[in-house]
Amino acid sequence: TTVSTSSPPPTTETALPTTEAISHCLQSNLITFENASTYSKISNGYHGLKWTNAYVLDTEIYPQWSESGFYSAVKSGTWVAFNMNGDRMTIAIDTPNKFSIKSFVVSSAWNDRVTLSMVSQRASTYYKEASFKIEKNRSTTIELNWLDINTITFYASIKNSQHGEVFVMDDLCLDSNTLSTSTSTSTSVETIDKCSLNEALYQTHCYYLDGVGGECRYGYSLGSETILSLIADSFIGLNYKTAISGNCCVITSEKYSNYGVNSVDQCNKQGPFTAVPSLNGGGCRNHTTEHPRQLTFCMSN
């Protein structure tokens, strides 16, 4: 499915199937998100841009999602970008630099009849906006051709719903003479081979989430809520260490559990994680009752 907009209206449009070819995109301007980061969150500086709530994952690692939009959106390679928890995703660049967004491929991750809305700014002033219908099992190629902008914000939703939707993006075509093509990334949290599978490295310790009711593996102990608050996003794209949780209030080294996962997100569901623990998430506040498979935050000793 391909839709085009040269002067996009603010009203919602429905994307219709078409065999129309998309505009040619120079290889240097095509962002395929292949190996975009050793960490699931795209770091500022990737392709010279600032990224907010933009994450990546390798679909090849998650065959259980083959019927989702994570697979239908794949255009090049196996990596895709997505917005965590259905929150807004923003791509920006510092002025006086600017970029032009030509096109991208997109699907809804989990549901049909989703509306993807985009609003752009030029020099901190409203420029253009557009909305299009996207589906789960087929991708849509959206051609915007918005020139010389500084910011674009994406938001997906279903009519009459109070929650945002997750969308999945590939083959983002940007075109600008002022756009840096540097792909360097930096972060203090990594998921590399210094730690075992489904563990995140922070400073000198490895951390994981598991549904084990407060019982960490040998050589590990409970991590603190302070550290969890700092590195929670690093678990996006990872999985439970050994077992799916039965209670989403996270057991840490603190006396009470104040971090949890909202039940509408990924509470007690098969990973990999698309949502992570947050303060008072899932109503977890001064929680003391422990479930045999309660979600547990562990760190290496």
Structure description:
By secondary structure, the chain is mainly beta. It folds into two domains: 2-175, Jelly Rolls (Sandwich), CATH 2.60.120; 189-300, no CATH class. It is 4% helix and 36% strand. The protein contains two helices and 21 strands. The strands form four sheets. Strands 1, 3, 5, 6, 8, 11 and 13 form a seven-stranded mixed beta sheet that branches. Strands 2-10-9-12-7-4 form a six-stranded mixed beta sheet, with no helix packed on it. Strands 14, 15, 16, 17, 18 and 21 form a six-stranded mixed beta sheet that branches. The protein is elongated. The N and C termini lie far apart (51 Å).
> Biggest sheet: strands, sense, closure?
7 strands, mixed
Question: From the helix content, strand content and strand pairing, which structural class follows?
Answer: mainly beta
> Fraction of residues in helices?
under 10%
Low-confidence stretches: 6-21, 177-193
Kindly state the number of beta strands: 21
Please state the oligomeric state of the protein chains shown.
Answer: single chain
CATH architecture of the largest domain: Sandwich
CATH topology name of the largest domain, in short, is Jelly Rolls
**Strand percent estimate:** 35-45%
The average pLDDT is 83
CATH class of the largest domain: Mainly Beta
- What is the straight-line distance between the termini? 51 Å
The secondary-structure element order is EEEEEHEEEEEEEEEEEEHEEEE
Q: What is the global morphology?
A: elongated
Number of helices: 2
CATH homolog superfamily of the largest domain: Galactose-binding domain-like
The domain tally reads 2
- Rg value: 20 Å
